[in-house]
Amino acid sequence: MMDANEAILALVKEPRKRVGLIQERFAQELAGALSTVNHSENGNHLPHRFLLRRFPELREEWDKENLPGQNSGQPQGIAPTYADILGFCKSATLEEIRKHGYVLTPGRYVGAEAAPDDGEPFEEKMARLVARLREQQAEAAKLDAAIAANLKELGYGR
């Protein structure tokens, strides 16, 4: 079973290959940069959310255009693919939606991906994180004071 990141990366490559587009043309269709598509397909980074939101629209457009290699919106011999991805997407049944009182908040259905256990005991981790927060707050106070002094020097101080 693929993890959420692998599944998201497959969302970039699968539709492009399905309709037979080269990366450059696919990037144009998405109104994105070629480097973004290339890096996403190679697993260097996840695609931007605005690109992921464009996929359903593009599939409809491609189906209407009946691009080469397509037959009624689907290439011959290739079945449409979809998989629920914990923390990312879920195809809810009408019964599940009924159980939730027809509330369509995604979190009720999609869930959250399990966070990997880093092996650090909770108490130690919290102590470390709180100490780091205190250091950052002290640094922020110093920066605030320096900014206030600079503004005062420029005649905008209190």
Structure write-up:
It is a single chain. The protein is mostly helical and 158 residues long. The chain has three domains: 4-83, 434 Repressor (Amino-terminal Domain); 86-115, no CATH class; 117-158. The chain has helices at residues 4-18, 23-30, 34-41, 49-65, 94-99, 107-110, 122-153. Helix 2 crosses helix 3 (34-41). The longest helix has 32 residues, at 122-153.
CATH topology of the largest domain: 434 Repressor (Amino-terminal Domain)
Largest sheet: none
CATH architecture of the largest domain: Orthogonal Bundle
The structure class reads mainly alpha
What gross morphology would you assign? extended
Helicity range:
55-70%
Low-confidence stretches: 66-79
| The level-1 CATH class of the largest domain | Mainly Alpha
Mean pLDDT: 75
Compute the number of strand runs: 0
Task: Write a concise synopsis of the structure shown.
GO terms for molecular function: DNA binding; N-methyltransferase activity. The protein has 158 residues and is mainly α.
Strand and helix layout:
Layout: H1 4-18, H2 23-30, H3 34-41, H4 49-65, H5 94-99, H6 107-110, H7 122-153
Helix pairs in contact: 2-3
Name the features:
158 residues; coiled coil; 57% helix; N-methyltransferase activity; 7 helices; SAM-dependent_MTases_sf
